[in-house]
Amino acid sequence: MIDGLGGAKYLFAMRITRFDGQYEDPSPPTSQDALDLICVDDDDDIRFITRQALNLDANIAIECVSSGRDVLQLLNRRATLPDCLIVDSRMPMMSGEMLMLAVRSDERFKDIKLIVMSANVHRDDLNRYFALGAAGVVGKPFNAMTLASQVREILSSTIARHGNDWRRTA
User: Fold this and answer.
1) 8 Å CB contact between 150 and 117
2) Helices 147-156 and 44-54: crossing angle, nearest 10°?
3) Could you tell me the residue ranges of all domains in the chain?
4) What are the pLDDT digits (tens) for 105-144?
5) CB under 8 Å to 4, separation ≥6 — which residues?
6) How far, in Å, CA of 67 to CA of 63, rounded?
7) Whole-angstrom Cα distance, residue 103 to residue 83?
8) From the CB of residue 164, how many other CB atoms can be counted at a distance below 10 Å?
9) Whole-angstrom distance, CA of residue 138 vs CA of residue 84
10) For residues 111 and 84, what is the distance between their CA atoms, to the nearest angstrom?
11) pLDDT at 157
């Protein structure tokens, strides 16, 4: 159990692989199921838990940043674009929604899928996220043990775009 800011408590587990008595960093994903993700969240605890949870899947490479500005700079520096951005909806300076608008308005980033992480998951919130181009939404608090499979499920869904109206379809 990890104590977060504001009294939040997080429970997670992670696998540690040991070779010859030494701990090694997991190798980068190499299979067809490999995913390259960037998580953007202003909360240090959420970034830590998200990274640990997604690292449970050996075929997910995850990089975390703390602001919308940081992720836009990272996208501009990277040689390859990620498969998906996992975006906190509420961040200072540049909200998740503003970041989503910036990503969707840049032709270079149009193929990057967006997943919103938010405690705000009422119908109006969901409609707004999907209208901004979200492939899916992960509610906070999330289950760290199932986060990787939840992200994979969202990304495996077909996305049909009609104007500015993004809809998940089976």
Assistant:
1) no
2) 80
3) 34-159
4) 999 999 999 999 999 999 999 999 999 999 999 999 999 9
5) 10, 43, 45, 46
6) 13
7) 13
8) 9
9) 13
10) 9
11) 78
Name beta bridge partners: 62: 37
The sign of the torsion formed by the CA atoms of 13, 15, 21, 23 equals negative
Of residues 16 and 113, the one with the higher pLDDT is: 113
Closest CA to 59 of 87, 26, 88, 86: 26
| Region class of 80: left (phi > 0), else alpha (psi between -120 and 50), else beta | beta
Question: Residue 170: which residues within 8 A CB-CB, separation 6 or more?
Answer: 157, 158
Distances (CA, A) of 81 to 17, 24, 38, 66, 120: 28, 26, 10, 18, 28
Euclidean distance between CA atoms 49 and 54, whole angstroms: 8
Q: Domain 34-159 classified CATH 3.30.950.10?
A: no
* CA pseudo-torsion sign 45, 73, 147, 121: positive
**What pLDDT is recorded for position 24?**
44
